Each structure stands twice: as C-alpha cells, then as structure tokens.
Amino acid sequence: MKKISSIIFFALVCALAAKALPFETTPSPSTYPIHWYQLKINGMYLYSCDGQWTDVEASPTASTTDAYLWCFVRTSSGKIVVYNKAERKYMRHGYSFTDNMSNAEINYVEEGSNNTFYICFKAENTTFYLDYDSDNGLHSPSWKMHTFTAIHALVQEDKPTPNGQLSLNLEVFDDYCMLNAVYSGSEECTVSLNVKGRPVNNPYRITRTYVDQELDVIATVTFNDMDPLVEHTTIVVPALPAQEFTGHIEVEFTENVNDCMIYADYIGPETYSLKFYVNGVEADNPYTIARTNVDQHITVKVRVEGRGRIPLEFEEEYTIPKYVEPDLDLTFIISGLSGSAADAEGSNTFSKLYDNNPYTKWFLSMDTWRPFFIDLRSSQSCVPVGYVMTTGDDTNTHPNRNPKAWKIYGLVGTGDWDEEWELLASVPNGAEAGLGTSNMTEYRFDIDGVNKEYRFFRFEVLELCGVEDDRHVFQLAEFRVRGHAYKALPGDVNGDGKVNVTDVTTLVNMILGVIPKDQEHADLTGDGKINVSDVTALINNILGI
Hints:
By secondary structure, this protein is mainly beta.
C-alpha cells in the first residue's frame, strides 16, 4: 500500500511539474499537432541562419517565418530539447544544429520563474546557460542565468494534407498495357505500385492475353511529413481481340444396319478443342445410337473453341431411321391360280415373282377376270412386318397392269393343311396405299400389329387397276415379305403385338388366378414372381417412365 501511494505521489509531482512549464511539448517533430513558439531573451528573438560563426542569431524584431519558430520535444530520458522548424533540426550548444535527438540533449530546458525557462548546457556536472548580451551576442556556456520566454506564434500546427490527387491510368496498346500511378500535387513525394500482392515498377507493363485479367492494385504516395495517399482498386486488363477460325466443321452421318454413327471434326490449321452435344447433353465423338422400332429425332450441336478465337458452332437435326428387318428368302411352293402356268405369256411365269431379278416379271393375260393368288414359303418362320412389290419394266406405259386391291395372309405351317389362313393385311386401293407406276421400282408396305410367327404367306390379287384392249392383264416383277424372328415385346402379356391397357388387365387376371400365369411374358421385373411389382413395371412401360 505504501509503494502504491509513492507511485501516485510521484505521478502527481510530475504532472504538476509538467503543468508549470510555460509551453506545450511535442512528442516528436513528426507527430501532430505541433505547437510552435518564438524564443525571446533579453528583448531579442532567436532565429536560425547560415552565419559565419554561428547557425543561431538573435534579432530585436519578431517574425513568424519558419526560421523564428521553435518547438519543445521531450526525449526518452525525460529531457526537453529545442527544435527549429526551418532547419528541421535540434539546437546543439545553443548556436548550432544536429539531426540526432540524443546529441541535442546537451542543451535542455529547465523551468524558470514567472512562466520563464532556461536553456541549459551541462559540462562535467556543472550547469551553464545560453545567454545573450549586446557585447557578446548569443553565447554559451555562460554563468549568467538569463531566462527565455516562449511566445506562442502558432497555437498549433495540424498535420498537412496533400494538395494533389492520386490517379491510376491504364493505357492500352496492341499487345500490352501500361499501368501508371500519378500524383498531381507539387509536394516532394514517392509514388509506388503493388500489383497482385507484390511491388512492381511504376509505370508497370502488363502483357495482354486472350482473356480479361483482373488485377488487385495498390498505389501509394509517400510524403516526408504527411500521411500517405493510398488507392486500392481492381483494374481489368482487356483481352486481346478474338480472331475467327479460318476452317470449318464437318459432320459425317453414317447409317448402319443396327445403328447410326455421327462424327464431327474441325478442318483448319488452328489448335482447337471440340465439344459434341446431343439434345443439349455433352456426348462422345464419334457418337453411336442404336436404331429402334421407331424413328428417332436428335439435335446435334458441335462447338469448336481455341485460344484467342471466336467459338465456331454447328447445329442440325438428324433422324435416326427405325430399324428395318431384312427381307426374308421366300420359296414358291404352289399357286392357287385358276388354270395353269400356261396362262403366262411365254417364260413370264409366276417363278419370276421371287427370282430377285427386277428385269423379269410374272405376266398374266385373261379374257375373263378371276381373282388369283400365289402361296410362298419362308426359309424360316418369322414375324411379318411388311412386304415389297417391284413394278414391271413397262408399268409407266401400262399402269392398268398394277394390282388395285389385294390381301396378304399368313399360315403358321404346323403340318396340318386344314388350318386356316390368317388375314395379315387388306388393301382396297393400291394407288392410295402407295403403289406407284414407275418402272422397276420397289414400293414398300407395312404389316402392323403382328407379333406371331408364320412360315407360309399368300398374296391374293382381287382386282386390277384397269382393262387393256378388253383383256385383264397383270404384271409384277418381284414380291417379297419382310420379317424377323419372334421377339416378344416387353409388356406384351397377351401376345397381340401391342403394349397397352389390355395387357394390364391380362396381367391382373393372371395374378388373381382367373387365367393361367405366363412366366415368360408376365414376369416383367425378372424376379421369378408374378405380382403387383410387375403391374407397376408394366404401367411405367406404357407411360414411358
């Protein structure tokens, strides 16, 4: 407790002593605010000069110029030294100056009486004083204790502020930019640049690239006695102008039996990268897509990019044609023609209808019209999907020889010749169905909704397109059936060749035990069971989920 009281007492003494001084001290000549005074002794005012014998003189005339202004700085040892504004130095020996504050402590201030003070000089434990008289002028050391008076010439000096502006200028050239930090004021200063966290020259050269560059920039103006000016910003160095590709994009579309392939390439001298998109999704190049039982429409987009190049794009829609089963090899077995092959003109018998030669034909000429047919046998059982008719070599000039109405039948061919022929297609008007009159031209027709295998087929002609010279003349160069091996449609539970709500009904009846279960066609999930999970899978199949 006693120690604390001593500390408080010492602080009070120091505070009273500081308060007794007839001036305000300044922590340092660079710390603001600064209190500037005129020093007066024996009616004379001290000022700094470049004299022959001394750097400090006295004048009877007061002035507020910098040479006459002084401030009082307290050193780290507690002494108070004197600093001149014009010289920007400390008083030493009373008549010279020094830059070093410690060296200035040889002169120090002591309190006098009645708001006065002494400027002292200590040598070998003896105190002398800075003095002035008319005979000797300003001199030290002196035994005379003449006091100084501090006259407040400036109440205080606040830190000055720059009178100019700091600006950052970016000048753009063909392949580079120059960044320059400029200060517009007249003060002595240093302007520096820092780009992306490191100091650089001012001005600073920046090489342009093919992309915009964002640079973090700090510009700083440093002064001798003022706070620095700082500008912190982001500048954008513009990219070099992009150039166009000189080449072009080529896209190759190849149609194969089971799939189609699309391949894109850029033909040109530039370095590039190529991106390939199908229906908006990036895909492999080349891109292969399987053909299905329906036409598929896709959008292909190709984008070529390169450094410093304007991207090159290509976009087009493509149709992936549905899969077409190859025509089957059909072999003639018997004709149901009323009469005999002798009705054919010369060698143009019914065998020409399946000899794969469009230059031959089956030719018939009748006085009285009667429907006729021809039965054909496939080399293997198949599901018919269509048929092809090839017109004769002079159909263009004899269009009435084309069949107008016909039917197509199928027979499973179990060996039982009493089994019934099943109707597969019926055409009442061939021209409307698509049978044309060009010579030796293939015309294709579809057989829809059949999902059952047949071995035998019947082509029955019911009516011709017209009469020629009062005779009924028929000709056709080729007839072929198109088909494929039996493939059960996923979800075709009832085997009608379609997948729809009737299959849902059949499947539910199987689960309820109304009809026998068909494990091969009803187990849609493949888990070995027929239950409600298969119904869900079937409904999702119908909905396309």
